[in-house]
Amino acid sequence: MKGKFITIEGIDGCGKSTHTKLLARWLKSIGREVVTTDEPTNEVIGKTIKMILKGKLKVPVEVEALLFAADRGQHISGLIAPATRSGKIVINERYLYSSLAYQSARGMPEEFLRKINSYVPKPDLAILIDVPATVTLTRIKPSRKLDEFEKDIKLQEGVRRNYLRLAKKGEMKVVDGNRPLDEIQAELRKLVGAIL
User: Fold this and answer.
1) Do 105 and 19 meet the contact criterion of CB atoms below 8 Å apart?
2) Is-contact 9 16, C-beta < 8 A?
3) Is the pLDDT of residue 122 over 80?
4) Would you tell me how many other CB atoms lie within 10 Å of the CB of residue 104?
5) Which residues constitute the domain of residue 48?
6) Most CB contacts within 10 A, which of 1, 14, 29, 47?
7) What's the number of domains the chain is made of?
8) In Å, how far are 69, 72, 121, 185 from 99, measured between CA atoms?
9) Does pTM top 0.85 for this prediction?
10) For residues 51 and 185, what is the distance between their CA atoms, to the nearest angstrom?
11) CATH number of the domain to which 138 belongs
C-alpha cells in the first residue's frame, strides 16, 4: 500500500492539532498506519526556531525563513520520506504553505521563500482550515503563553489572507473551520478518503 503525505494548514487556533488527532484516529480505525508530526520540529534547528517564536532569540526575518526551510529539509529526509516510502500516511501540521503565508506576511518576497523551499516534495493533499483571526484568538487557551506570531492579530490576519490567496491558486483545499467540529471532521475525512 502506497504511503501518503497530508499537510494541515491554518492560522494559530484554527483547530489543526485537534483535527490531526481525529483524522489519525479515524485512519487507524480503517487499518492504515499513521504518523502525525508538525513543524517546527523538535530537532536542533526546530528547537532554535521555537526559541525565536518565544522571543528568547532575535534573528532577521531572512534568517528565520532559512531556518524554517532547513528544519523542513531535515524533517523530510528524517521522517516524512521514510514513513511514506514504507506505506504510512503522514499527517503534518504546517509545511511549506506556512512559510509562504507567515514569512511573506512579515515582508519576505514569496519568490525568495519558494526558492529556498524549492527542493521540498509536494504533498498528496494540503488542507487549509480557514477561521477568521478574531475567532482563533478567542480559541487559544487563556492559560497558554502566546508566542510572537500568535499574539499579533494583524499578522494573523495577513497570514490568513496569504493562505486564502494560495488556496485560490489551487495549492490547498479550503475547509471552513468556523463550524461544529463533527462537520469539519466529516469534510476532512472526505478529502483524505479521496486520495487513499
Assistant:
1) no
2) yes
3) yes
4) 22
5) 4-193
6) 14
7) 1
8) 8, 10, 14, 25
9) yes
10) 32
11) 3.40.50.300
